[in-house]
Specification:
A: alpha/beta; D-Maltodextrin-Binding Protein, domain 2; 12-stranded mixed sheet; B: 5-stranded antiparallel sheet; 5-stranded mixed sheet
C-alpha cells in the first residue's frame, strides 16, 4: 500500500519532470542541448533537424549577442519534427529543418508566423516564402567518389558520364554504389523527386545503379563512412556541407559538383504560430538570415550561408524552389507512385 | 461714376460647377477602377485555380480497378508563381477522399462536368477561394464521379487589390487636381472676350462714340448689338444737342454783332458820362456774349471734327505766329503785349489745322482775358524732349483749383466770378490736344504770378 503510494508519487513526479523537460509529449528526441544564459531572462526553444556540431557555433554566437537568452535546442528527425508540430501541438518557438517540403507544408498549413524585417528583406526572393519560411543556408548536393576507387581514373562530372562509366565497368562498381533509400529518408526522397523534375537521366541512373546492386542508406554520414572504409566507390546525392566537413577531418574521397545540374538544398527556419518567445525567435531569424555577414561563425559551423552571387555565377546550381510545388511530392498518391517507380528502377523488378 | 455692385461672379460659378463635375468624375473613376481591378484580380485567381484543378483532373486515371492520381508538379507550382498564397486541394471520388486535405469543405454548389463551381469561405484562419471541377472516370466499366477542388488564400490578391486601389486613389486625386486647374483656366478663358470688350470700351476716349468693333463671341453679339444701338442713339442725341448749341450760337451771334454796331454808334452819340458808362458796359457784355457764342461754335466744331480728324501736315510755328497776330489788336485794348517766340526750324505735326488753331487761340485768348492791364503774355513754341506750346500770363493764376476739373466743360476757376466767361476755352484746348495725341498741361507760372497753359505733343 505504502509502496503503491510511493510509486504513484514517483510516477507523478516523473510525469511532471517529463512535462517540464520535454516540450512535446510524443517527440522522439535525438539530442538536446541547453545553453544556459548567464542572467536568464527568457528561453528560446528551437526544434531542429540540424546536428549539434554545425549548429552549436551559431547558437553560441547568437547567445554572445543576446546573453540573457537561454537556448533550448532539441534535435529530432525530419518526419518527427513534422509530426510533433502538425499533430502533437508541440510548443517551440522556432523550427529549423533541412526538409524543405515539410517546412513548406507547415507554413502552408498555417503553423508559421509571418515576420518581416530588414534582415529578411535582404534575402533573395528564392530564399523566402510568404515571409514565413526563411532559408539561411544553401547546400549543394554532390557526388562522392572514393580516392581508392578513382585513383588516376577519369572523374565523371555529369549524370550521363556517370551512367556511361557505371554501365561500361559493371564489375568495378558492383555493390559499390550507394545512394539514399528514399523510402526511409525524407532528404533522399526530396532530392530524388527534384532530380526527376529536372532530368529523365535520373531514371536511367537508378536503373544502372540498381543493376549494380546498389546499397541504400538512411543518411549522408553512413554513406561517407562506407566510402572511407572502401565499401563504396560512388555515393550519389550526398549533402555537400557534410561531405566537406568530413573531408576536412578524414579525407579519403573527393567531392564532385555535377556540371549538368546540382540541386541546392536550402535549410529553412520558421517561427511557429504558437511560439511563446516571439521576440527572441525573430531575433534568431534575423541572425540566421544575415549569417553570411559573420564569416567566423560560418567557418566554425561549416554551413554555407545564402549567397546569391555564387548561384548566379554557376548556372548548374539549382536551388530548390520554395512554394506550393514542394507539396506535390508530399501527396500520398504521388509519393506512392514515385516510390513504385523508384523501386522498379532500383530493384530491377 | 460709381462702380456697379457685383451680384455673384460668372467665373466663380463656372469654376465651382466645373470643379464639382471634376470631383464627381474623380470619385466615379476611382470606384470604377477599383471595382474593375477587384473583379480582374478575382478573375485572374479563378482562372489560375481552374487551370490547376483542370490539370489535376487531366492526370486522373484508372489503374487496377481503382482511380489513381499522379498529381502534376505544375498543378500546384503554377499557383505559387503569381503570389505566395497558401494552397489546398482535395480529390473526392464518390464521396471518399482520394488525396489532399481531408478537411477541405465541399463547394457550396456541386460542380458538373460542364460547369466549375467557385466558392469563398474561411479555412485554416484565412479566407480562401476554391474552384471545384467534376470529372467522370470509368473504373472497371463503372463510372465514378470525381470532384477536384483547389483552394488558395487571397492575401496576395488583396495586396494587389489594395495596391490598385492606392493607384486608383492617386489617379482620381490627380485627375481632380488637373481638372480643377483646367476648370480655372477654362473659366478664365471663357470670360476673356468679355474682358477684352470691357477693355475696348474702357480705353475709348470720352468722345469716341463709334460702334464697338471688337471680336465678339456669338453669345455676346446681342449684347454688343444692343450696346452699339445704344451708342448710336446716344451719339445722335449728343449730335442733336451740339447742333442745337451751334445753331443757337450762330443765330445769337449775328444779331449780337448788329446790336454791338448799333451800341457803338449810340455810344459815340451819347454826351452824359453816366450814359456812356452804361453803354460801355452794355458793349462789354455783348462782347462776352459774342465770345461765348463763338466758343460754343468752336466747341461744336471741335466735337464734330475730332470724330473724323483730318491728317494735314501742320506747321505749328505758323499757327502760333498767326494766332498771336490775330489777337494782338484785342490785347492792345488792355495794353497787354503778346510776345511770340518760335524757333526757325519748328517741326510739323499731323493733324487738323483748324482745330489746332482754335485750341491755341482759346488758350491765348484766355491768357489775355485774365491778364491785368499793361502786362505781358508769353507764347513759346519749344522743341526738346517733346514739342511744347506754352502760354504764360501774369494774371491771377488758378487759385488752387482742381486743375484737371478745369478742363471739363463749363468749369471755371473759383477766383474768376468778376470776369465773364463760358468755361469752354480750356475744354476746347483739351479736346483738341487729346484728339492729336497730345496733352494739355495746366500749372502755375514758374516765374511768379499767373498761369502757364501748355499743349505738349510727344515727339514720335
Amino acid at each position: 500500500m505504502r509502496l503503491d503510494r510511493l510509486s504513484a508519487v514517483l510516477i507523478g513526479w516523473l510525469a511532471v519532470l517529463a512535462a517540464w523537460t520535454l516540450p512535446a509529449t510524443a517527440l522522439e528526441i535525438e539530442e538536446r542541448l541547453v545553453l544556459e544564459a548567464q542572467t536568464p531572462r527568457s528561453v528560446l526553444r528551437i526544434l531542429s533537424t540540424a546536428d549539434r556540431a554545425p549548429f552549436e557555433p551559431i547558437l553560441k554566437a547568437f547567445q554572445a549577442e543576446n546573453p540573457d537568452v537561454t537556448i533550448d535546442y532539441t534535435i529530432a528527425g525530419t518526419s518527427d519534427v513534422m509530426k510533433a508540430v502538425s499533430e502533437d501541438g508541440a510548443v517551440f518557438d522556432l523550427v529549423i529543418s533541412s526538409a524543405m517540403d515539410l517546412q513548406t507544408k507547415l507554413a502552408n498549413d498555417g503553423f508559421a508566423r509571418t515576420y518581416r524585417s530588414a534582415a529578411t528583406d535582404s534575402l533573395p526572393d528564392w530564399a523566402r516564402w510568404r515571409d514565413q519560411l526563411f532559408a539561411f543556408t544553401q547546400e549543394p548536393v554532390v557526388l562522392i567518389l572514393s580516392d581508392a576507387a578513382f585513383a588516376g581514373q577519369v572523374v565523371p562530372t555529369t549524370r550521363d558520364e556517370l551512367i556511361e562509366l557505371l554501365r561500361d565497368e559493371p564489375e568495378r562498381f558492383m555493390g559499390k554504389v550507394g545512394t539514399y533509400d528514399v523510402r526511409t529518408s525524407g532528404f533522399g526522397y526530396l532530392m530524388a523527386t527534384q532530380d526527376s523534375r529536372v532530368s529523365e537521366a535520373i531514371w536511367r541512373l537508378l536503373e544502372v545503379i540498381g543493376r549494380l546492386d546498389a546499397r541504400l542508406y538512411c543518411c549522408s554520414g553512413d554513406m561517407l563512412r562506407d566510402i572511407r572504409s572502401g565499401k563504396l566507390a560512388v555515393a550519389y546525392n550526398v549533402l555537400g556541407s557534410y561531405a566537406a566537413a568530413e573531408l576536412r577531418e578524414t579525407g579519403g574521397f573527393r567531392i564532385v559538383h555535377m556540371k549538368d545540374f546540382a540541386n541546392v538544398m536550402l535549410r529553412t527556419v520558421l517561427i511557429l504560430d504558437r511560439a511563446e518567445n516571439v521576440a527572441d525567435a525573430q531575433r534568431m531569424v534575423d541572425f540566421l538570415a544575415t549569417l553570411g555577414r559573420r564569416p567566423d561563425v560560418v567557418a566554425a559551423s561549416g554551413l554555407p550561408p545564402i549567397d546569391d552571387a555564387a548561384l548566379r555565377g554557376n548556372v548548374a546550381l539549382r536551388p530548390i524552389r520554395l512554394g506550393p510545388g514542394l507539396l506535390v511530392y508530399l501527396d500520398r498518391l504521388k509519393r506512392r507512385s514515385f516510390l513504385r517507380n523508384w523501386e522498379a528502377s532500383i530493384t530491377q523488378e | 461714376m460709381t462702380a456697379q455692385r457685383a451680384s455673384g461672379s460668372i467665373r466663380r460659378r463656372l469654376f465651382l460647377q466645373l470643379a464639382l463635375i471634376a470631383a464627381l468624375l474623380s470619385v466615379g473613376l476611382f470606384l470604377v477602377t477599383r471595382s474593375l481591378a477587384a473583379s480582374a484580380v478575382e478573375a485572374m485567381q479563378d482562372g489560375i485555380l481552374a487551370a490547376s484543378a483542370t490539370s489535376i483532373a487531366d492526370a486522373l486515371r484508372s489503374e487496377d480497378g481503382a482511380i489513381t492520381l499522379d498529381l502534376p508538379y505544375s498543378a500546384l507550382s503554377m499557383l505559387g508563381t503569381i503570389n505566395q498564397d497558401r494552397v489546398f486541394y482535395r480529390v473526392v471520388v464518390d464521396g471518399e477522399t482520394l488525396t489532399g486535405y481531408e478537411d477541405l469543405p465541399p463547394p457550396d454548389e456541386t460542380p458538373t462536368i460542364s460547369r466549375n463551381s467557385f466558392s469563398t469561405f474561411a479555412y485554416r484562419d484565412d479566407e480562401v477561394r476554391m474552384v471545384s471541377v467534376a470529372r467522370v472516370v470509368s473504373t472497371g466499366g463503372v463510372p465514378s464521379t470525381v470532384q477536384i477542388s483547389v483552394a488558395q488564400t487571397r492575401l496576395g490578391l488583396s495586396a494587389i487589390s489594395q495596391r490598385i486601389s492606392g493607384v486608383a486613389t492617386a489617379a482620381g486625386l490627380g485627375f481632380f487636381l488637373v481638372a480643377t486647374a483646367l476648370s480655372l483656366w477654362a473659366a478664365r478663358s471663357a470670360l476673356r472676350p468679355l474682358e477684352r470688350m470691357t477693355e475696348a470700351v474702357t480705353r475709348r476716349g470720352p468722345g469716341d462714340l463709334r460702334p464697338l468693333q471688337a471680336e465678339t463671341p456669338a453669345e455676346l453679339v446681342p449684347f454688343v448689338d444692343a450696346l452699339n444701338s445704344f451708342i448710336s442713339r446716344l451719339g445722335a442725341s449728343l449730335q442733336r444737342s451740339e447742333d442745337l448749341i451751334a445753331e443757337a450760337a450762330h443765330r445769337v451771334r449775328t444779331p449780337l454783332a448788329t446790336v454791338r454796331a448799333k451800341a457803338e454808334v449810340t455810344h459815340r452819340k451819347l454826351q452824359k458820362p453816366e450814359h456812356r458808362l452804361t453803354m460801355r458796359e452794355m458793349i462789354r457784355a455783348i462782347d462776352e456774349s459774342s465770345r461765348s457764342a463763338g466758343q460754343l461754335l468752336d466747341h461744336a466744331m471741335v466735337s464734330f471734327r475730332t470724330d473724323s480728324l483730318s491728317e494735314d501736315t501742320v506747321d505749328l510755328a505758323e499757327i502760333v505766329q498767326e494766332t498771336c497776330a490775330r489777337l494782338e489788336p484785342a490785347a492792345g485794348l488792355k495794353d497787354v503785349e503778346i510776345r511770340c517766340q518760335t524757333p526757325a526750324d519748328a517741326p510739323t505735326v499731323r493733324g487738323d489745322w483748324l482745330l489746332l488753331q482754335s485750341a491755341i487761340r482759346n488758350i491765348v485768348d484766355n491768357a489775355v482775358k485774365y491778364s491785368p492791364d499793361d502786362s505781358v503774355v508769353d507764347v513759346r513754341l519749344e522743341v526738346g524732349a517733346n514739342i511744347r506750346i506754352s502760354v504764360t500770363d501774369l494774371g491771377r493764376g488758378f487759385g488752387g483749383a482742381d486743375l484737371e476739373a478745369l478742363k471739363a466743360r463749363f468749369a471755371r476757376g473759383g477766383n474768376v466770378s468778376d470776369i465773364v466767361g463760358s468755361g469752354l476755352g480750356l475744354t476746347i484746348a483739351d479736346e483738341v490736344a487729346r484728339a492729336h495725341g497730345a496733352r494739355l498741361e495746366l500749372e502755375p507760372n514758374k516765374n511768379g504770378e499767373g498761369a502757364c497753359v501748355s499743349i505738349v505733343f510727344p515727339l514720335s
